[in-house]
Amino acid sequence: DSGVTQTPKHLITATGQRVTLRCSPRSGDLSVYWYQQSLDQGLQFLIQYYNGEERAKGNILERFSAQQFPDLHSELNLSSLELGDSALYFCASSASGLAGLAPYNEQFFGPGTRLTVL
Amino acid sequence: LAKTTQPISMDSYEGQEVNITCSHNNIATNDYITWYQQFPSQGPRFIIQGYKTKVTTEVASLFIPADRKSSTLSLPRVSLSDTAVYYCLVGGHKAAGNKLTFGGGTRVLVKP
Fold first, then answer.
1. What is the pLDDT of residues B84-93, one digit of tens each?
2. What average pLDDT does this structure show over A90-100?
3. How confident is the model at residue B94 (pLDDT cuts 50, 70, 90)?
4. Which of A4, A17, A52, B82 pairs as cysteine with A13 (C-beta 3.0–4.6 A)?
């Protein structure tokens, strides 16, 4: 158990709909990252928040948005859903905002939310 | 932006050593190299991290040459439970907008 929680575990919805994915980071971690993993694909970095502020933006579509709240939990909002948005969405957290730039600042990944768009 | 390239898949047998190389030609000065392991339907899990030369832990070694344009994850004496996808990650340098780039992943299959 990484200490990162994600809800819901599974989500089935229709095209054109909007959904919200929720992530609670490990206790004490200030940074939250969102990734998308399509079937048999690698991890695509979407966005990172550090202590409530956006720190880095990856290949995130304009239909997607995220935020990190004062209690450090984060939400990823996906709107106008398309079939191609079906994927596993992972949230990760790290102690600081320096994942990859500093030693021992590893990311801890949650179990993921599996989104199916029909 | 640091782009990473890994082999798509590798097969091995129990008890053998598995070496996976990741190329990252555009790695920035401040970037660390991190490797993660992922089992089906689970989130990735940290294995090892390094900046240069060699790092060794209980479960793996990481070799990084002086030019840092590649890195090799070495898994000694693999077992069936090491069957997984292995990703290298190069850190998000400020010049690249802090973006984190995972390699495409290497699917390792350990056979009995």
1. 999 998 876 5
2. 82
3. low
4. A17
- Alpha helical stretches, state H, A30-118: none
Shortest distance, CA B74 to any CA of chain A (angstroms): 19
Q: Is A45 on the interface with B (CB under 8 A)?
A: yes
pLDDT band with cut points at 50, 70 and 90 for residue B95: low
Distance CA B51, CA B97 (A): 20
Interface membership of A111 toward B (CB under 8 Å): yes
**Cβ–Cβ < 8 Å for A24, A5:** yes
For the stretch A33-72, pLDDT in tens is: 999 998 867 889 899 999 999 988 888 999 999 999 999 9
Find the residue in B nearest to A4 (Cα): B43
Cα–Cα distance list, A93 to A16, A113, B34, B97, B104 (Å): 30, 15, 15, 19, 21
Nearest C-alpha neighbor of A87 from the set A39, A19, A20: A39
Which residues in chain B (82-111) have CB-CB distances under 8 A to chain A?
A: 87, 89-93, 97-105
* Nearest by CB: A58 against B31, B46, B99: B99
Window 11-30 of B, Cβ < 8 Å to A: 30
